[in-house]
Amino acid sequence: MLAHVLLTSVAIANVATASLQIVPGATWTASGTNQHIQAHGGGIIKVDGTYYWAGENHLNGSNFQSINCYSSTNLVEWTFEGELLSLQSSGDLGPDRVVERPKIIYNDDTSTYVMWMHIDDSSYGEAKTGVATSSSVCGQYYYLGSFQPLGHQSRDIGLYKDDNGTAYLLSEDRPNGLRIDRLTDDYLNVTYTTHLFPEHYEAPAIYKQDGVYFMFGSQLTGWSANDNKYTTSTDLNGTWSDWSDFATAGTDTYDSQTTFVMQIGKSVMYMGDRWVSSNLMASTYIWLPLTLSGTNATLINSSNWIPSTDDTWSSGGDETDPEAEASTNVLSNGAKVISCSGCSGDESVGWIGGSDNGTLEMRNISSDASTTTTIQVRYENGDSTQRYATVTVNGKSQILAFLPSDNGNTPATSVLNAQLESGDDNIITFSAYEEEYGPDIDRLLVPEE
């Protein structure tokens, strides 16, 4: 029989709200892989009420491994669907190759999904675009090949499909600037340059609202974040405004780089990457509400927010913060309270998992409704790889990933989407996954109504 240590005191009720939330910069575990989502530099396309997110897989380093696809109906809970392009033995998709920033648009005339991407060697000396096609948005794509569009260098790319079906390649041409090139009717090639910005920006994305085109882009600072900029025009061929900040100046776009901008419900969402250049698989996603009014764009920084697929976004609100080391919790099989200088209360619970299955049982988590909600798990992981834990909420288990944190004493966040029952009897348990040690747990942030 397992030996348990029950730390007794008066239980504190922690009230949760009915909300699935986006938490920028957190570990985001995908169903189907139990790994942090690997869709870096990507974009989203919506088909029949489902969102499909395609991006770069950097699980095992910086070189090409695959272009992954994930699906979701709510933009919070994502399921791995498969690889759209996979590693080949040679060629553009072979070992030691660079395949970046995949974007997908649908051609209504040919009933074909078309993907464009940046293709390069490891020294970034080729500067080409690649094209692939599929009859299914999240199926296997057929790679057609690579080239320099109109004979120009092309590194970071984006795609834009206008209201009338005309599509454009957005391309960073290092010698000349940022290009908007019109695609052929089948979207498989480039016909001519619609506009050339002499300024040098990369990671381009276009969004159109009320007849105004917004072009977003990043300055050229490598993997390091910077204050990304935007410019506007009422005509892709016409005069564009001066480039301006859309996030608070000096914040480096809240430590992110533009990858995509899209409509969700009645709101607009900015998608950015927070790159970890020394360990790309640990790069996270900065998705934030973007307010567009006239020709003005303002990025709203939020630690957590609620997207709506049919209405406007809302704030995640306040949270309660039950501590892992609270005396109401149960520690068993070697799990114990440890010192953590950066944690709340200077303590966390460690030795979770392992062959002894060290277990933390957090009790008295309350909810005002029976609902699925997003709980933030504050943790420490001093390794350079992901750790994992089996997380059981009211008897239902899932595997949660935990990216490396800055150091063993600085908490990071992993998001837990789980069903809470109405009342104050909810229990959340952290235990071993495949007999490996999990993270140290600092506390939970449970949404408060």
TrEMBL record:
Keywords: Glycosidase, Hydrolase, Signal
GO molecular function: hydrolase activity, hydrolyzing O-glycosyl compounds
Taxonomic classification: Eukaryota, Fungi, Dikarya, Ascomycota, Pezizomycotina
Assigned protein family: Belongs to the glycosyl hydrolase 43 family.
GO biological process, one term: carbohydrate metabolic process
Signal peptide: 1-18
Organism from which the protein derives: Aspergillus neoniger (strain CBS 115656)
UniProt keyword annotation of Protein transport present: no
PANTHER family: GLYCOSYL HYDROLASE 43 FAMILY MEMBER, GLYCOSYL HYDROLASE FAMILY PROTEIN 43
Designated name of the protein: Glycosyl hydrolase family 43 protein
Domain of life per record: Eukaryota
